[in-house]
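[Q] Does anyone have a clean structure-token version of this?
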Amino acid sequence: MTLRQILDVLWKRKWIIGAVMLAALVTAAVYLQLRTETYVSTGVIRLNDVVSEGAVTGEVGGVAVDVSAEAVTAPVVIDAAADQLGEDPSALTGALRADVDDSTSLARLYISATGTSAAQAQERASAVLNAYAAYVDEQLAAALTTLHQRQAEAIQNARDLQHEVAANPGDSIAATNLATALSQMTTINLAIESVSDAGAATAIVTSPPPGESTVPSTLIVLLLALATGLIVGVAAALIRDQFDNRLRGEDEIEAISGARSLGELSWDRGVAAMDPPLPVAHNERTDLSERLRTLRSTLQVFLPRRDAVAVITSVEPGDGKSFVSANLAMAWARAGKTVIIVGGDLRRPDLGRYFGESADGDGLADILHEHEVGEPVSREAVASRLNTTRYRRLRVLPAGAEPPDPADLLARPVLADVVAHLRELADVVIIDSPPAIGMADAALLALQSDGAVVISSVRKTDRVLLADTVGALRSAGAEVIGVVANRSRRKLPKTYSSYYVAQRSGEAAPGSASAVADDVTAADVADLRKLLNTAGADETLRARTSRSDPTAGESDTGIDSGSAGSPQAERKTASDA
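[A] Here you go.
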């Protein structure tokens, strides 16, 4: 995927990213509410060279001592600190940690204490630091006492041996013992001097400061939650997109189906409020109406210049085939072509939403049903079933009564004669067909046309079904003109839409015509309104309209005002228009 495609995917699935980020923030908020914030304070105490050696060897001057880091948590130290703080010794033990830094000649002991507040952590560290320093002093004092006792004993022993040697100078054993006693006395004296000259056993290098929080700040937690939610959300959106088999846009159509793309039709919320939903019938330019006109221009390239027949089908129900059929017919009619739209969907006809009563009554099904195999159908039989609409140059051949066997009815050879007569009666024939998947109706109608246009829906149509639809039509021998991607959310650039499309509702574009009488000027309309107030309004209106309109059999709305209520006159108008 290119960077642009990735960005498009992320924008279309921004709700996934937003949901994941929201979940991450909620989780972070719950964590902030439930977490227990703790603080830690650390003090540093330095040991002199004698105590540093004793911490490693476990003795001072030959006297056993316990001044190692483990002594910080010894009961004698903990009990003294707990008494000072008024706490439980077991709780204090769990809040302590001691580490030795022996990289220098004088060892440094780092004592850390945790607490539920900055002050408590500081107080605990200070109390343990002082208790340990006092404990080391006691250990060193006890060692000195022991050394002094050993010194006195060594002196007394040496004196006794001196008396023995003086009494018996030739006694070699006594002389050897005297030498050993003197050596011991010297060693003890040196140890005492070493301890005495070493100075203070401990020195507090860094007093414990107020405790610092051991958990991240609220801001950091929220930022981490946002970053994590963004990363996970982007990953989820991309993974979801890879498993999404729906059509994303017109760019994929040719690769999926092998058929050309005829463009995209945008999603327009305003269509739902239209009655009828015919955006191309209005003078207000919108993105959707302009794209429908663009589709009309594109189809003109692939259809004959005259007597063209196009079948509009879809992949699935609800893709908007009837909407596209009705608006294409309207667009061609406004472009000056005589158009017939055929209700080819004999199962669920839907043209009534667009053309009202003009789409009701006898129609295609009745013509096919009335003419058995081998029985020719006349042009008059087809023309008599055409209904005029309120739009000039646009007529409707209704679907007619729903038959029990639509596919069998459309398979009759007489369908070719009906389509041939329709070609003679109009410049463009649009057939609104059923969906092509699972039914033969669309293929049977497409075989009698110049080609089929397949309507698909962006973010709805399954890619496999789209390929199967095009393949089924081609397998039946029908020509597939191309595929239209309907309900696209891709918008026109702002510079284009603001300059060419944006227009106030109800404001007519310069040089454009109304949806009903698209070749009558404003002056003509004003004159007609004046004539309506005269005594001979009907005759004058027909005369004036006949001079401005060569058809002379239709009014500005496409209905013969002079023969309303006369079926024979209506059929004549429908066939001659």
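[Q] Thanks! Anything notable?
[A] Residues 503-577 have pLDDT under 50 and may be disordered.
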